[in-house]
């Protein structure tokens, strides 16, 4: 039926930040609220898709009809994404921490121990790039790119590097992180579309409609 154009499709969505432990009480994180990713998961479920939402630590209700898998770290998110496959499409909205502490302390680090600790960081797995180049690659792979400058140029470079069909580039130089509106550019190999400043729910609806078109048309994205 036309109001459930994604019936029978499975779509994987990642959302939120990740938390990377430094010791049992401290972590590295970022300002992602999860709002945009949760809105996208809800919009896809409303169009009939079976949606697996792999969510970092956020304080948001699960959208109706969405299966949520809660994780904390990037490595847990990578495992959860793997376990949720296969999928017809993946929309990777999570703001995954690029780095984690090389050796998280098993006990709380104590100021009284003296000295100032040095954080040794190591790189986290790139979940999107891994999926974009994997044998289990969904038909449509969508990444996000939060940038504060050269938004579209960075997104173009990211398309190939991540193995994505589209990159939704968002300009986070304003109050986008945590806010309810977004300014995005949809970047694909065929060009760039700049969308007007709009609520995150409207970005979600428009992107979900584009995903419907891509998955249900004869020609692939
Ligand atoms: O490289 P950058 O972090 O800007 O890429 C953003 C895109 O890559 C987003 O779609 C994000 O969800 C994804 N990503 C990921 N795993 C990482 C880093 C980014 O899936 N470790």
Describe the structure.
This is Coenzyme A biosynthesis bifunctional protein CoaBC. Pathway: Cofactor biosynthesis; coenzyme A biosynthesis; CoA from (R)-pantothenate: step 3/5; Cofactor biosynthesis; coenzyme A biosynthesis; CoA from (R)-pantothenate: step 2/5. Residues 11-221 are annotated as: Phosphopantothenate--cysteine ligase. This protein is an alpha/beta fold and 221 residues long. Helix content is 26%, strand content 28%. It is globular and about 65 Å long. Residues 14, 74, 92-94, 96, 124-128, 143-145, 162 line the site of cytidine-5'-monophosphate (C5P).
Strand order of the largest sheet: 5-4-1-6-9-10-12-13
User: Could you describe the largest sheet, including whether it forms a barrel?
Assistant: 8 strands, mixed
Please state roughly what percent of the residues sit in beta strands, choosing from under 5%, 5-15%, 15-25%, 25-35%, 35-45% or over 45%: 25-35%
Number of strands: 14
Spell out which ligands are present. Answer: cytidine-5'-monophosphate
**What is the 3D form?**
globular
Residue stretches low in confidence (pLDDT < 50, at least 5 long) are none
Number of helices: 5
Distance between the termini: 22 Å
Helix % is 25-40%
Note the run of SSEs as H and E.
EEEHEEHEEEHEHEEEEEH
Please name the defining characteristics of this protein.
221 residues; 8-stranded mixed sheet; binds cytidine-5'-monophosphate; single chain; 14 strands; alpha/beta; 26% helix
